[in-house]
Design goal:
Growth Hormone, Chain: A, 4 domains, four-stranded antiparallel β-sheet, 26 helices, disordered N terminus
């Protein structure tokens, strides 16, 4: 074993762990994106992924030191492990299509579907994460379990966290934005190989002697646990539980405040890991000199109660009301700087204490003669096990069951209990009487303090859920009629003084009864049912306020309408608050609602439809991009009946021209027979409907007008008249172009694929940008002109439509 403080290569090991941690976070981001595309991005799927990922690390840290002999050189083993991680990373990258094909062939709803998701995640994630979990226990055998040696173990952990910070920022802000999952994976593999080569080189330069002459290090010496070790394991598990549960809660709150872009999530993760790194550094430095590290560990948990209250107050009572107008800058890098500072202000104090807890726990259970690998593996496994319970429990149980406020109160109480557990353990020099007296006084004082802290957690403001980052500048006159927190999202309903009712999701208005929104939502629904050859079976992806689904539901020939919504809470909200605007679609017996990710539903169903319409969240919202890729549009195409139609929402506001061009070009790539119909506000560009068919689009204006005039279509006709469209010509005059018209404008547009999710990175740069009309005018400046081969009918109707399109009367 190395003599701590005497081996010149010990600091170099920290550098190795930086590389290892960086590659691990890059893999995590890539694997989660790949697997979410296969098993879906619902809370259940993400819970399965996160639980499997962390579970593999837990098992690896616990079993590796028990399965691997202490005779092997730790650095050589470390090198082999890094190579193994790289090899498996490549296997996952190229084997995912096969895994996806097997899964979609067998997957379905219900418990069996959930079990199959778990099996797929386990096959892909357990082997590499087992190896990741084994790295720290394996390398820990290079030092002794003396105070100074344990301190070095903490510094190794710090290096791993520091690399993770670099990896999260590198992948989120550069690699995945500029390249794709393939090239990003290659960078991670290269890091593995460099780390492995350095580790192997150091192993050649430093001989390893596993056992000391001291009897304490004899191969057959029993492993002696430190006094109170069981309580320490419980405490560090609780610390992991509170850390990850709080991270889940705070991430949801911060994504409302910053905007839920992929960059926001990278910033939050990096800030949290940065705090863990600072805390681990401090804890490692303290561990070598503390006589009773258990007391320090206990006080860390008690102080966490105060820092969690600080974060709750900052995120729900203070920061949302800071007088900051985020629209003053459209520079994404300035916004990122502001968001990082605000994030650190809220989460850094608690993250530092959680980071310090790990090395202090190591020092608390370390005793001379222990196998360092088992020491580190046991503490790491306990911490990771708690983290699994915290992350999955917070997102799937605590938040939807008792909301963010009460969830944080639970975490504060649990942390206080774990702190008392540590402080209650008597020191070696204390008598039992003194210990009991101190414990009694401590319990009384801290119980009172803890109770006050629990009570001081504020409520989540409804205006924050409704308006998110715009809270200081918008919504002052809005009355929050409803606010609720679901498994996947927080939603709100607000009423304006003019009578407009808004539906909020992702911290912004997603739909409303405002004339501009109603016009688009009903256009989207009615065009979906009026254009296809037959009109009996339809699919609506994303329920929202239900207006689009409601417009589809009034089609007289409808036999079955399937609506896929990822958040169960939305059904309750729109049934109660939006039924006057959506024809009470939730209660319609012909409408069947599936709680699922839209992409996952299409992958696992054999149903085919006359029309499929998608109106998901903004492209910049993390996770929504899976509904904007070429592969997703192909899925929709594959589920069309002959003559069927696909309609898609495309927004021009809160985006940029590159993102809009990417979405439209990707849609045209799959549907070369496409058309665009525009929804403008007072003649200014706002958003559009993309329409695609397998065969060239043919629209009979006379036939559509006959439906307008038919008593059977009276409800649909009134629905369109309510948005200012009194005839088929009025509706079709919103035509704004087709692929042949937009070739010049779309030249050089990036196609969004599953492997790059390009649109979420493009749109994520401009959630504060409002250049919708500029984008729209650039799109239509070469026309449009009525394509005579697309529209058929009587000369009267065609002449009226030609004049309306050329003059832009309805655009």
């Amino acid at each position: 074993m190395s003599e701590p403080g005497k081996n010149p290569f010990l600091p170099l090991l920290i550098l190795l762990f930086i590389g290892s941690g960086c590659s691990a976070l890059i893999y995590e981001i890539v694997w989660f994106q790949l697997l979410e595309l296969v098993i879906g991005s619902s809370a259940i799927s993400i819970g399965v992924l996160l639980g499997t990922f962390m579970g593999g690390m837990c098992v690896g840290s616990l079993l590796a030191p028990r399965l691997i002999s202490r005779d092997h050189h730790p650095l050589r083993l470390y090198a082999f492990i890094e190579v193994g991680i790289g090899v498996i990373g490549l296997l996952i990258l190229f084997g995912m299509p096969l895994v996806g094909g097997v899964y979609t062939a067998w997957a379905g709803p219900g418990m069996m579907g959930m079990l199959l998701r778990g099996v797929v995640a386990a096959i892909c994630l357990l082997p590499p994460t087992f190896l990741m979990g084994a790295t720290l226990p394996v390398i820990s055998r290079w030092v002794k379990t003396s105070p100074e040696g344990v301190s070095w173990l903490g510094f190794f952990y710090v290096g791993n966290i520091g690399g993770a910070v670099i990896g999260s920022l590198l992948a989120g802000f550069y690699l995945m934005r500029v390249y794709d999952v393939n090239k990003t994976t290659y960078v991670a593999v290269l890091l593995n190989l460099v780390v492995a080569a350095l580790a192997f080189l150091i192993s050649k330069l430093t001989p390893f002697r596993p056992f000391n002459d001291d009897a304490d290090y004899a191969a057959d010496a029993p492993v002696r646990a430190a006094p109170g070790a069981a309580a320490v394991y419980v405490t560090i598990a609780i610390s992991g539980f509170t850390a990850l549960a709080a991270e889940v809660i705070w991430t949801r709150l911060l994504s409302l405040l910053f905007g839920g872009t992929v960059y926001t999530f990278s910033l939050i993760l990096a800030a949290f890991l940065f705090g863990l790194g600072i805390g681990s550094t401090l804890g490692s430095a303290l561990a070598r000199n503390l006589k009773n590290p258990r007391t320090a560990l206990g006080w860390c948990q008690m102080l966490l109660c105060g820092t969690m209250v600080w974060a709750a107050y900052t995120l729900m009572k203070s920061m949302p009301f800071w007088p900051i107008d985020v629209t003053l800058t459209t520079d994404p890098w300035l916004k990122a700087q502001l968001d990082m500072v605000r994030c650190l202000w809220a989460v850094l104090p608690a993250a530092i204490l959680w980071g310090a807890s790990f090395p202090l726990a190591l020092a608390s259970v370390a005793s001379r003669g222990q196998d360092p690998g088992r020491l580190v593996g046991g503490v790491y496994a306990a911490n990771t096990f708690g983290a699994i319970l915290g992350s999955v429990g917070a997102s799937m149980v605590l938040i939807p069951w008792i909301n963010s406020q009460h969830s944080q109160q639970v975490l504060i109480a649990v942390s206080a209990i774990s702190g008392l557990l540590m402080l209650a353990l008597p020191g070696d020099e204390e008598s039992s009487t003194k210990s009991n007296l101190n414990f009694g006084i401590t319990v009384l004082c801290l119980a009172v303090a803890g109770g006050l802290l629990v009570k001081s957690v504020p409520e989540l403001p409804g205006h924050l859920v409704a308006y998110g980052r715009f809270l200081p500048t918008r919504g002052a006159n809005a009355t929050i009629t409803y606010m609720g927190e679901g498994i996947n999202a927080s939603v709100a309903v607000s009423d304006m003084p003019d009578g407009t009712r808004n539906y909020h999701n992702a911290g912004k208005v997603q739909a409303s009864s405002d004339p501009a929104d109603m016009r688009f939502q009903r256009m989207l629904g009615h065009l979906t049912t009026l254009i296809p050859a037959t009109n009996t079976d339809f699919l609506v992806v994303a329920l929202g306020s239900g207006v689009t689904a409601g417009a589809v539901s009034v089609e007289p020939g409808l036999k079955s309408e399937t609506v896929v919504e990822i958040e169960p809470l939305v059904l309750k909200v729109i049934a109660k608050y939006f039924s006057p605007y959506n024809f009470d679609v939730v209660q319609n017996p012909r409408v069947h609602i599936q709680i699922d990710d839209g992409r996952h539903f299409l992958q696992t169903t054999k149903m085919k439809f006359d029309g499929i319409t998608s109106d998901p969240l903004d492209q910049w919202v993390k996770g929504a991009a899976s509904l904007y890729t070429k592969e997703y549009f192909q899925l929709e195409k594959d589920h069309l009946k002959p003559g069927g139609v696909v309609t898609q929402w495309a927004q021009f506001y809160e985006s940029n021209e590159d993102a809009v061009r990417s979405e439209i070009a990707t849609f045209f790539e799959v549907f070369p027979n496409s058309a665009i119909f525009a929804n403008t506000v007072r003649g200014l560009g706002y958003d559009v409907v993309l329409i695609g068919q397998v065969d060239p689009i043919k629209i009979d204006v006379d036939k559509m007008q006959a439906k307008f005039d038919s008593p059977e279509y009276a409800t649909m006709s009134k629905s369109l008249k309510d948005i200012g469209m009194y005839s088929a010509v009025d509706l079709l005059a919103t035509y704004a172009g087709r692929p042949s018209d937009l070739q010049t404008w779309l030249q050089g547009a990036m196609i969004t694929h599953d492997k790059d999710m390009r649109i979420q990175y493009l749109a994520g740069m401009s959630p504060n940008l409002y250049h919708a009309n500029d984008i729209y005018q650039n799109m239509v400046k070469f026309g449009p002109y009525m394509p005579k081969e697309m529209f058929t009918g009587s000369d009267v109707h065609l002449q009226l439509l030609d004049r309306a399109i050329s003059q832009g009367l309805s655009r």
